[in-house]
Write a structure and sequence with these properties.
There is one protein chain. A hairpin with a 3-residue loop joins strand 20 and strand 21. Helices cover about 25% and strands about 30% of the residues. The chain has helices spanning about 10-15, 50-55, 65-70, 80-95, 120, 140-150, 180-185, 195, 200-210, 210-220, 250-270, 300-315, 350-365; strands at about 1-5, 25-30, 45-50, 75, 100-105, 110, 135-140, 160, 240-245, 275-285, 290-300, 320-330, 370-375, 380-385, 410-420, 425, 435, 445-455, 465-475, 480-485, 490-495. The relative contact order is 0.06. It is elongated. The protein has 5 domains: about 5-80, MutS, DNA mismatch repair protein, domain I, CATH 3.40.1170; about 85-105 and about 115-220, no CATH class; about 240-330, Dna Ligase, domain 1 (2-Layer Sandwich), CATH 3.30.1490.100; about 340-400, no CATH class; about 410-495, no CATH class. The chain has about 500 residues and is an alpha+beta fold. The chain has a 7-stranded antiparallel β-sheet with strand order 15-21-20-19-18-17-16, with no helix packed on it. Strands 5-6-1-7-8 form a 5-stranded mixed β-sheet. A 4-stranded antiparallel β-sheet has the order 9-12-10-11, covered by helices on one side. The longest helix has 21 residues, at about 250-270. Helix 1 packs across helix 4 and helix 9 (about 200-210) packs antiparallel against helix 10 (about 210-220).
């Protein structure tokens, strides 16, 4: 899922911040002239505020025409520094949701919410900027979200290709290649995005080229491109000046939660964690309270970072109200932790040796380790190699065997331990010949058999020597079993083929 954030009239909003008295009057910002020596150059309006739009004018109008419609129109000089600061505020709002964002235009951001939870998506409606209307829209692809956020009919909702069909075709003017395609589409009589969607793609690409075909894929949601990710600043420092002093802890914690969401997004984008938090509160009496909190372990999530701050603030007695907040973090490498079922990381690597020592004390050193196959043909023959970090004396590693491909494509599900069974057998020069299973989970007559497969080992050691005769048999119930005879007179069921 992707979201688009759009701040309409950004140049005029930034210009009005230095002239707040003009906010209730119709105002407009002109673009910077590319030919300042040409007195006859006519520039269109770059942006107008809501009051000016109420008179009937809009961005892109010529100045003389706008003066006729709105005689009291105020022209404001463009302020690039204020515009950059306003864009930085917009980015800060977006980073509280996800670090994966793209600056698509000076007034539009695209957010990848695939890693954000449902709660983060709900928080889109809570984003705000002072003296500005911040709009958002959701879609399955970034380009559909960008298209939907530009119109009042599709803002604030999750949009599909049929939802954007009623938008004016002029909304596509921000896409690449619009200067060549839009005049041609206008000559064809197309008025809405839906008119463009109904054109056959192959014929459209043949007539107007691959760019038109790509546009057709975009409006149908068939293309989901990668975002050109914006890299956050290297500093994690954040400050917030309050318009009204805070006398209670609850609203202060609410503001800290907002700052921590941005901090968490910046840390996640750089694959770092916070080892320490530095909090500074500016008080109304002129003093400041600074605390540096060392976290018990590196943390990233905003909820986890809030707990030590909240615990500390509940024990603090302030001499006056808070008028400013500063928050900074000392980054460090994140601790490897198992946060999901299928993760392979250790939950707390620093306690690995302690956990092993407790297991060895409980079970004994001969029962704790990493199983390694022995250099033997005996089934289930292995040795235990002490794991790294244990206090057990390290033994030399046994020789590992090459992987042996099974002789059959049917897997054998082995019983651990093997199940003893009673078998009716006949004498044979090669050993006992099984005829029927008299007990066990699958009793019955043996209708087919393969074997015996004789294996033995350690014949030179009377205490460790072993011998076994394996049979692959099929009983009347059509089950395939692994039957083993252990001299002198013991039968066991090793497993079932399944």
């Amino acid at each position: 899922m992707f979201a688009a954030l759009h701040l309409p009239d950004l140049p005029v909003i930034a210009a009005l911040r230095s002239s707040p008295a003009l906010r209730q009057r119709p105002c407009a910002v002109m673009p910077v002239s590319q030919r300042p020596d040409d007195p006859k150059e006519k520039l269109p309006l770059l942006a107008v505020n809501a009051v000016a739009r109420g008179t009937g004018i809009a961005a892109g109008w010529p100045l003389n025409r706008a003066r006729v419609r709105c005689p009291g129109l105020e022209l404001l000089p463009r302020q690039p520094v204020a515009e950059a600061a306003l864009l930085a505020e917009l980015i800060e709002q977006a980073e509280s949701l996800t670090p994966d964002l793209e600056i698509t235009a000076p007034d539009t951001l695209l957010l990848d919410l695939s890693r954000a939870g449902t709660g983060r998506v709900v928080q889109l409606a809570d984003l705000f900027l002072p003296d500005a209307d911040l709009h958002h829209a959701l879609a399955a692809t970034p380009d559909l979200a960008r298209l939907a956020v530009l119109d009042d009919a599709t803002r604030g909702e999750f949009n599909t290709p049929p939802d954007v069909a009623g938008l004016p075709l002029a909304r596509l003017s921000a896409w690449n290649g619009a200067s060549e395609l839009m005049p041609l589409l206008g000559l064809w009589g197309l008025a809405t995005v839906g008119d463009f969607q109904r054109l056959p793609r192959q014929a459209l690409a043949e007539r107007l080229g691959p760019v038109a075909g790509h546009w057709h894929d975009l409006v149908h949601g068939r293309v989901c491109r990668l975002l050109r990710l914006h890299r956050p600043p290297p500093s994690f420092f954040q400050s917030l000046a309050l318009e009204e002093p805070l006398h209670l802890i609850e609203p202060l914690i609410f503001l800290l939660k907002k700052l921590l969401h941005t901090l968490s997004a910046r840390l996640a984008a750089r694959h770092l964690a916070a080892g320490e938090l530095k909090l500074k509160l500016q008080l109304e009496c002129g003093e400041s309270l600074t605390r540096q909190l060392r976290l018990p372990e590196p943390l990233i999530e905003a909820g986890h970072l809030l707990r030590p701050l909240q615990t500390h603030l509940e024990t603090v007695r302030l001499r006056s109200a808070v008028i400013g907040v500063e928050l900074d973090a000392t980054p460090t490498a994140p601790t490897t932790a198992q946060r999901e079922w299928f993760g392979r990381q250790l939950s707390q690597p620093e306690r690995w040796a302690e956990t092993l020592a407790q297991a060895i004390a409980l079970l004994g050193p001969e029962r704790v380790g990493i199983p390694v196959p022995s250099a033997s043909h005996r089934p289930d023959a292995f040795t235990l190699r002490p794991p790294p970090g244990s206090l057990v004396q390290t033994l030399p590693e046994p020789v590992s065997l090459l992987a042996i491909q099974p002789s059959t494509s049917v897997p054998l599900r082995r019983f651990r331990p093997p199940r003893p069974v009673s078998v009716a057998f006949d004498s044979h020069p090669q050993g006992p010949w099984p005829l029927a299973l008299l007990s066990g989970p699958h009793p019955g007559e043996i209708v087919d058999r393969r074997g015996p497969f004789v294996a033995s080992g350690h014949w030179w050691n009377p205490q460790a020597r072993w011998q076994r005769q394996e049979w692959d048999v099929q009983v009347a119930s059509r089950h395939l079993l692994r039957l083993v005879f252990l001299p002198p007179a013991g039968w066991q069921l090793d497993g079932i083929y399944a």
